[in-house]
Amino acid sequence: MVNLTSFTLKHELPISVRQFLDFFESAPHLREVDILPITSISDAQDGRLVPLVCLQRMDAGHHPSSSLFNHLLIPAGTLLMMGVDLPSPPIDGRPPRFIDNLKNLSNFTKIKLHGGTPYVRFKGPNGEVWMRTRATQVQLLLGSLANFDTSKTERLRIMDCKNPPSSDPVYQALLPMKSLHTLKLHRCQDSHIFIYALCPSMSSSGAMVCPKLEQLDIVYELAFDIRGVVATVAARASKGTKLKSVKISAWSEVVYSQTDMLELKKHVLDVECDP
Amino acid sequence: MSRPALWTNLDCVDADKTRVYLERSKSSPINLWLNSYYGALSDAFFDHIPGATGRLKSMDVNVEPGELELVSASLSHPAPLLEVLSMCSYGDSVLSPTLFDGDLFVTRVAFGARCSH
């Protein structure tokens, strides 16, 4: 199998970790792998590590097991796709030794969370992870972020979330994002929850959530109260973390009060409201 | 007709067509697409493809569970040119250990009672 570059196996036989590893070793040029992760038989020798040096894309099926990933060396730049049962961890089993092996699982600079399809996608210079799930609850999607280091995340985009989360999961998800500079909330049923989480008064310790946040981009379909945004940006500005840009787009005709707009412009360098 | 590369994509739906394609493709690597929905598992496959296993460049198999065993048992010669391999079969399917002369990982070990020796 030395020339094999693409391999798909969707087959309901139990295939052991050792069998997978033997195969991967015999196919060193594999670029694309798509497998049903039936790896219940964990018979691989401790410490055995198989590098997939050419791998570009791997679909590990639904809820893959760490018993396989503990033995694979996934190179930086790889797109890893998997189905996930939330709220359990994306990869079954601990300890999370796989994190060291999976070189694509670090420095995620962009996260996209989609409540409609639904999925969570992490992207960064070292690679990508795309987690498909059946869970449409935003707080479950947000909870999945805790499995990864989001301290380098600069852009977070949350789309089509129809089930408003409670404020604590939102706060807990945003708190580690020390590098976040752009937050986009597109067609989320209750964007206010996210806006309030950014308000310094949300934190009992006084810690600033997302201290590098510069840009807030909101697209909404239903009723939206701009005063929540005004209060949050004003509070952040008073703590020295002034936003550079706020963009608000409505799908319906909306009239913003002159007072709110003036107040918003007082605390943000660039304000754009459409319509 | 004098260009073998034009005759290298096989779907094995018709036996005569498959034979003609194999002849006209001469020794070129071939791409095989088998889908039982289109009735691919017929004489066209069993009569002509096993002898051409060594020319397989890509193989995409999407068959019923019982058919995967027949396909894999028929392809017992090595496939040194194989670059793309896709095998999809849901349910209680079996892969023959002789597939590609035992060169695929799932053929190196026995599957106990399910193995098709």
Question: Which secondary structure elements does this structure contain, and how are they paired or packed?
Answer:
The complex is a heterodimer of chains A (275) and B (117).
Chain A: E1 6-11, H1 17-26, E2 32-35, E3 50-51, E4 57-62, H2 66-69, E5 72-73, E6 78-84, H3 98-101, E7 110-114, E8 119-124, E9 127-133, H4 138-144, E10 155-159, H5 167-174, E11 182-186, H6 192-197, E12 215-220, H7 226-238, E13 245-250, H8 258-267, E14 270-274
Parallel strand pairs in A: 1-2, 2-4, 3-5, 4-6, 6-9, 7-10, 10-11, 11-12, 12-13, 13-14
Antiparallel strand pairs in A: 7-8, 8-9
Chain B: E1 9-10, H1 15-24, E2 30-35, H2 43-48, E3 56-62, H3 65-74, E4 84-89
Parallel strand pairs in B: 1-2, 2-3, 3-4
Number of helices of chain A: 8
Q: Give the strand order of the largest sheet of chain B, numbering strands 1, 2, ... along the chain.
A: 1-2-3-4
- Terminal CA distance of chain B: 41 Å
Distance between the termini of chain A: 59 Å
* Main sheet: strand order of chain A: 1-2-4-6-9-8-7-10-11-12-13-14
Sequence of secondary-structure elements of chain A: EHEEEHEEHEEEHEHEHEHEHE
Any idea what the radius of gyration of chain A is?
Answer: 22 Å
Could you say which structural class the secondary elements and strand pairing of chain B correspond to? alpha/beta
Strand content of chain A: 25-35%
Strand content of chain B: 15-25%
Q: Helix content range of the residues of chain A, please?
A: 10-25%
Would you report the number of β strands of chain A? 14
Q: Indicate the percent of residues in helices of chain B.
A: 10-25%
Overall pLDDT score of chain A: 85
Name the poorly predicted regions of chain A: none
* Uncertain ranges of chain B: 106-117
